[in-house]
Amino acid sequence: MTDAQAPPDRLVIDVTIEGGEVTPTNAQLRAAVGQPIVIKVSSDSADELHVHSTPEHDFAVGVGPGQSFQFTVDMPGRVDVELHQLHKTVATIQVR
Questions:
Q1: pLDDT at 8 > cutoff 80
Q2: What is the pTM of this model?
């Protein structure tokens, strides 16, 4: 038996941008402080993902499938993940 903790499970958010619409929209999710959060994007247009957290994160979304962006959140609270060009909120993550 060991005192080592298992690494936290990742929260994976699958995002599709197609024809000016995004899926999911306004997903309500939960994560832990320091938990890896991965956003996987397939898109037919370029955009920018903005993560309103401390620290904030910006990711350039290109055209194509299989794009992956990973970050962690260091402070508990509400974190909005938004697409700037489409002006859509993909998800709100409650970080505890």
A1: no
A2: 0.89
